[in-house]
């Protein structure tokens, strides 16, 4: 089994992510890439979502509201605002932020899940998450507020804030406003964003808002926070178990060596006694012969 620290690059396709690869991304900063088939799957899914919206068909979260408002039609004019409000309304977390590796694990799991191509999101959204992972932009996500049951809505909404150019994020270890962290990330990201969305960075929020409700919902749904924490905990548990086994084996070897040492010392003592006895006998025989 390849150790996470030895994995330098991980390709996300929505199907083959292993625990070791996830830990490599979250804990050891392995570079992340998107598989070509994942991009194609997301593009097909997005095309279908746009087709449904264009035909004004009733589809939950695409042309309707959510929850109790599932029967309320949402116009094109209001869909962008609804997407933004969906993220903002769930940014209710509090307390100390999650650790860097936990947030990175969360981002990797969310990106990997979206790679399956069943959420209707544009590939650019996942590319943004991947760029953030590769360029050390880590959203500030409060630890308290997750239900951990129907989805980590509050924590993942705080992650989505940074995609909107809001909230806060760590960049190179420095805590910054989300917009500033994204601005510092890299020119390549901005060029990709503009090419994909036709926006300037001043309109960064539109990169998510214009994707319709389904994209905003996809960012904050699922249990990525709990999954990331569980995966990292499991990895640490495996590491601890390995260390414990090594320690026990070391103690066993120490005991075996100690026992072997005792046997060796006893053998040496017996040999020394035998040699001394033989020398004494030889000396007596020599004295008798000389007399």
Account of the 3D structure:
The chain has 291 residues and is mainly α. The chain has a single domain, classed as Fumarase/aspartase (N-terminal domain) (Fumarase C, Chain B, domain 1, Orthogonal Bundle). β6 and β7 form a beta hairpin. α4 packs across α11.
Question: Summary?
Answer:
The protein has 291 residues and is mainly alpha-helical. Helix content is 62%, strand content 9%. α1 crosses α4 and α3 crosses α6 (153-163).
Strand content: 5-15%
Radius of gyration: 31 Å
DSSP helix fraction: 55-70%
Strand order of the largest sheet: 4-6-7
How would you state the average pLDDT, rounded?
79
CATH third-level topology: Fumarase C, Chain B, domain 1
Order of helices and strands: EHEHHEHHEEHEEHHHHH
Number of strands: 7
CATH architecture: Orthogonal Bundle
Structural class: mainly alpha
CATH superfamily: Fumarase/aspartase (N-terminal domain)
Report how far the terminal alpha carbons are from each other. Answer: 78 Å
Q: What does the main sheet amount to?
A: 3 strands, antiparallel
CATH C-level class is Mainly Alpha
Oligomer: single chain
Shape by Cα distribution: rod-shaped
Q: Number of helical segments? A: 11
Features:
291 residues; mainly alpha; Fumarase C, Chain B, domain 1; three-stranded antiparallel sheet; 11 helices; 7 strands; 9% strand
Write the layout of secondary structure elements.
Blueprint: E1 9-12, H1 19-28, E2 31-34, H2 36-54, H3 76-89, E3 94-97, H4 100-114, H5 123-134, E4 137-139, E5 142-144, H6 153-163, E6 168-171, E7 174-177, H7 178-185, H8 187-197, H9 205-209, H10 213-220, H11 224-290
Parallel strand pairs: 1-2
Antiparallel strand pairs: 3-5, 4-6, 6-7
Helix pairs in contact: 1-4, 1-11, 3-6, 3-10, 4-5, 4-11
